[in-house]
Amino acid sequence: MSHLILKDINKIYPNGFHAVHNFNLAVEKGEFIVFVGPSGCGKSTTLRMIAGLEDISKGELLIDGERANEWGPREREVAMVFQSYALYPQMTVFDNIAFGLELMGVDEDEIDRRVKNTAEILGLTEYLDRLPRALSGGQRQRVAIGRAIVRKVGIFLMDEPLSNLDAKQRVTMRSEIAQIHRNTGATTIYVTHDQTEAMTLADRIVVMKDGYVQQVGTPKELYFEPVNVFVAGFIGEPPMNFLRDTLTDGCMRFGEQKIDLRKKPGARIAEYEGREIILGFRPEAVSMQPVPDACALTANVELTEMLGDNANVYIEKDGARAILKTTPFEMPETDTEITFYVPYSQIYLFDGETEYVIQ
C-alpha cells in the first residue's frame, strides 16, 4: 500500500472560493514528489492540507492506510520546511536543530547524538555554536532542513524552501537537497513555482493550474509527453513555441509559410480539417542545418541572447514569432534572415478548442 494517498481532496473556503479540486495522488515510501505551477494554483494549499495546517473540505487523506483527516500535525508525523527559515535568532545552530526534540522530551544524550549526526549530513558541524545571523542564506536553509530531518518523521514537506536564495545559492541548495534525500530516503513532497527545480529534483511531478491537477508524471514524461498546452508551455526553458491556425489542406502556417502536417508520422489530422489546431515545437528541437524529414522555415532575427553554452534567438515572420535555441557558434546576427529546420517528429499538435494533445 502507498505511504500517502490523497483521494478526491478539495479545499473550499468559507467565502466559497474553491482552491483545490478533486486532487488525487498516491505517494510511495521514499518518493520525491514536486508540486509545480504558477502562483495561486493550489499547490501550497494542498501541502498544508497534508500537513494538517488546513482542514480538508472534501475527500480523504490516508497515511499508511489509515484515514488522517482529523489527525493533528504531530499525529501525522510530518515535518515542514517553509519559505522563510523561521530560525530562533537567539539560539545557536545546535539549539535550533534540537528544539523540536526537546519539546518531544527526547533524552539529552540522544538529542546530542542526533543533532551532530544531522549536522554532519548537512555539512553544518563546524557551525553548531554559531547564531543564525552569522550564517549565509544557504546555511540558514540547511539549518531549517536539519530541524525537520532530525525528528525522523515519515514525511517531509517543503514549501518553496529556495525562493529566498540568490540564483547561485539555489543551484547549490538544489544539489544539496537531492543529496539529503538520497542519504535519508525520506518521503518528500516539495512545492515550487520553478520548473527547473521540479525537473532536477523530482521522481514525479504534479503540475497544477487553477486548483486542478493537469498532469502527473516523471520529468521525462512531462517534457516529452505533455497532455495539454499548459503543461507543454510550463515545462521547458525557454518555453515551447505555439502557433494557432486553422488546418487547411492538411497545412498550418508560420507567417505565410505552410507547414504540411501530413508529413508528420502518425498525425491524426484528417478529422481536424477546417478546425483550429495548435502546433508546438520546442526551441531546442530546431536545427540551423538541413536535417531529414524536417520543415524548412525562414524568419527574421529580432534579438539574440548569448548565454554561454547556448544562445536564444528571437525570430519573426509575417507577424508570427518564436524562440530558437542554438549553440553559440551558430548564433546569427540580428536583423538578418535565417532558415531553420523543425523535424516533423518534434512537432506537437493540440486541439484548438480543448488545448489537449491530439494523439
In short:
With 359 residues, this protein is an alpha+beta fold. It is 24% helix and 33% strand.
Core attributes:
single chain; 359 residues; 4-stranded antiparallel sheet; globular
What secondary-structure arrangement, pairings included, does this model have?
Blueprint lengths: L3 E9 L5 E10 L4 E5 L6 H9 L6 E6 L2 E2 L10 E4 L11 H11 L4 H15 L14 H13 L5 E5 L7 H18 L2 E6 L2 H7 L2 E6 L2 E6 L1 H6 L4 H6 L6 E6 L4 E4 L2 E4 L15 E6 L12 E13 L4 E7 L2 E7 L10 E7 L4 E4 L8
Parallel strand pairs: 3-8, 3-9, 6-7, 7-8
Antiparallel strand pairs: 1-2, 1-4, 4-5, 9-10, 11-14, 12-13, 14-19, 15-16, 15-18, 16-17
- Give start-end ranges of low-pLDDT stretches: none
Q: For the largest beta sheet, what order do the strands appear in spatially?
A: 6-7-8-3-9-10
Taking the sheet with the most strands, its summary is: 6 strands, mixed
Distance between the termini: 33 Å
Helix content: 10-25%
Total number of helical segments?
A: 8
**Mean pLDDT over the full residue set:** 92
- Estimate the global geometry from the Cα principal axes: globular
Order of helices and strands: EEEHEEEHHHEHEHEEHHEEEEEEEEE
The share of residues in extended strands comes to 25-35%
Report the strand count.
19
Q: What Rg is obtained from the alpha carbons, in whole angstroms?
A: 24 Å
The structure class reads alpha+beta
The oligomeric state is single chain
What does this structure look like?
This protein has 359 residues and is an alpha+beta fold. It has helices at residues 43-51, 93-103, 108-122, 137-149, 167-184, 195-201, 219-224, 229-234, and strands at 4-12, 18-27, 32-36, 58-63, 66-67, 78-81, 155-159, 187-192, 204-209, 212-217, 241-246, 251-254, 257-260, 276-281, 294-306, 311-317, 320-326, 337-343, 348-351. The mean pLDDT is 92. The relative contact order is 0.11. The protein has 8 helices and 19 strands. The chain is 24% helix and 33% strand. The strands form 5 sheets. A 6-stranded mixed sheet has the order 6-7-8-3-9-10, sandwiched between helices. Strands 2-1-4-5 form a 4-stranded antiparallel sheet, with helices on one face. Strands 17-16-15-18 form a 4-stranded antiparallel sheet, with no helix packed on it. β1 and β2 form a beta hairpin.
